[in-house]
């Protein structure tokens, strides 16, 4: 049986076309939870972005793979129950916060302070320095993502376009020398595909994952992916891989769809996702998530019948 579902966000829960979570998607996630299935996130996004952009509005999630597996945590169930009962899963988007490093109290129900971190992998300072030098040399923008802080080295037209495409706001520009002293879990260099290939050759301890058709790439420690984050969360819960489902649409979802016991690709997914999926649901704009949840619930009912 499927005991936990990992959802990608962009293109899976939230359409790029509208930038808003549909009522159908909200109801589908609740239907999964009501069926006794743990609902979890698996995204390249930072948890602050999820809060700022209201990316999981009206939905309950108990575990989070963020930054493509670099930072993963499980929330305290009682905390989530309390928040949902108070409708706090609708109330985490009042204003943008890019720096919560001084916050002693959680700023939203899914703040990691409300849970247990199960995987936290930082990028080595020498690799960060290489990226910094290249960005300075070619005037590239780059986003730096710490545990409770997101900032940029500089703002370019290319960065603004990337932020516009994903309907995100502009983070502050800070002195990037801090990145050599403070743990950084993801870098997002903004450059062409050709330049990203050259960059990856210069940082052998890291990998770049393309997640859009644009100029942005997730740079993480080599070998750390959504898959490793999922495995860390499954270990925490004591859930087998065969009891896990994943739903996604992008290039950075291919491995997790192939890895989990049940992989579901959105109808709007990249061909690479569809090629490894066990099931392809309708397009995100055609109630795809609702169909995917019905498929999983029917899968569980069939499994119970067979047993």
Characterization of this structure:
With 307 residues, the protein is an alpha/beta fold. It is built from 10 helices and 13 strands. The strands form 3 sheets. It has an 8-stranded mixed beta sheet, sandwiched between helices. A 3-stranded antiparallel beta sheet has the order 7-6-8. Strand 2, helix 2 and strand 3 form a beta-alpha-beta unit. Helix 1 runs parallel beside helix 10. It is globular, with a radius of gyration of 19 Å.
Task: Present the secondary structure layout.
Layout: E1 4-7, H1 23-34, E2 38-42, H2 47-52, E3 63-66, E4 71-75, H3 77-85, E5 115-120, H4 125-138, E6 141-145, E7 150-152, H5 157-165, E8 186-190, H6 193-202, E9 206-210, E10 217-221, H7 226-237, E11 244-248, H8 254-259, E12 262-265, H9 271-276, E13 279-280, H10 288-306
Parallel strand pairs: 1-2, 1-11, 2-3, 11-12, 12-13
Antiparallel strand pairs: 3-4, 4-5, 6-7, 6-8, 9-10
Helix pairs in contact: 1-10
